[in-house]
Write a structure and sequence with these properties.
alpha+beta, three-stranded antiparallel β-sheet, 82 residues, single chain
């Protein structure tokens, strides 16, 4: 799915909606935090485990609600075990 000029979170929501995969969050807007995608939740595999994302192979520390995707960006979500 190609989504330019939207947040990384909005792109994730679109993908999850397309594949009917539930997503759980806390916060909203630029401060949204992804707690779970599907049945895999934060802290399921250790106190520091959870969902993270990178753009063009680079880890992004900011909330996915604040990162605006640009043309040609490649976004990847992954679950990090503790």
């Amino acid at each position: 799915i190609r989504i330019c000029n939207s947040s990384a979170f909005a792109a994730l929501q679109n993908i999850c909606n397309k594949y009917q995969m539930p997503i759980q969050t806390s916060g909203f807007g630029k401060f949204v935090y992804v707690q779970a995608i599907g049945d895999l939740k934060e802290k399921d595999h250790g106190a520091k485990s959870g969902w993270k994302y990178n753009i063009n192979g680079q880890y992004v520390a900011n909330s996915s609600g604040s990162y605006v995707l640009q043309n040609q960006d490649v976004m990847e979500w992954y679950y990090e075990h503790d």
